[in-house]
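Sanity check

After download, print the first record. It should look like this:
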Amino acid sequence: MKKLLLILCVIAGLLSGCSKDDDKPIVQQESEVTLFDKKAEPMAYINYVDDDLTIYMWDGTPVAYLEDDGLIYHFNGQFLGWYTNGIIYNKDGYAVAAKKGVVRGDIKMNETLAESAVKGVKHVKPVPYVQSLVPETPLFKDEWSVTDSSLDRFFLTEVTLFDKDKKAVAYIAYAEKSTIYMWNGTPVAYVEQEDKIYHFDGHFLGWFADRIVYDKEGYAVGAEKKVLKGEISMITPPMEPVKSMKHGKPKKEIQVLAPTSPDFRNSWSVTSLTDFFL
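Expected structure tokens:
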């Protein structure tokens, strides 16, 4: 009889322990966190499944990685900024991206654009280089950055520029101070702050705004992939050919004064993208 009571007590204790465990809340770790730009458009995401917390662009390009303390590094070792409170801040302390639900000052992610159903296949990650020194942490401002006007620029990626015939003609190398190269490797211009485009001789060419290259009259001469505005449709450009080796860059001359920006028209200029640069 004593044995039976002892067995019943043990069983009751086990059942009691199971019920307590079952009552505990289960906290699920997000496997991925989408990053939205200042237009509330999904542009990148943090993959928490990766050991090094890799940050991928939406097309699958690995652009940076996140340390446990929120420090963000490019794979070339360059320090980029911080990720804290669901916001990515640049080295000046201004926001360049945020996750859904964040509402702080000018950063409002309570209403974001719908995420594309399919992300690009993840590309192979490069080997990280030795990390650069971390600057002094700035005062984080709940305002959007002006200098890092796009995540492509912040993450130092290369952006292809297509002409109106959807041909890959040039690209912006943000890691090289926003230099613009023709597809044959010739450096032809660079993007300055406020998205102004200058030739190396200092001549002002136009603007790069909302992922579109505009001439001085405000007409489009080129655009990035996935742009769809008025006549400008780059949703499905053809496969890009292999780039030629980059040529040496000329010295930058003194810049001429840029004109006041016109109203940008979402229609094509009669000038080709090649003629625009050359």
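If your output differs, re-run the checksum step. Summary of this record's structure: The two ends are 99 Å apart (CA to CA).
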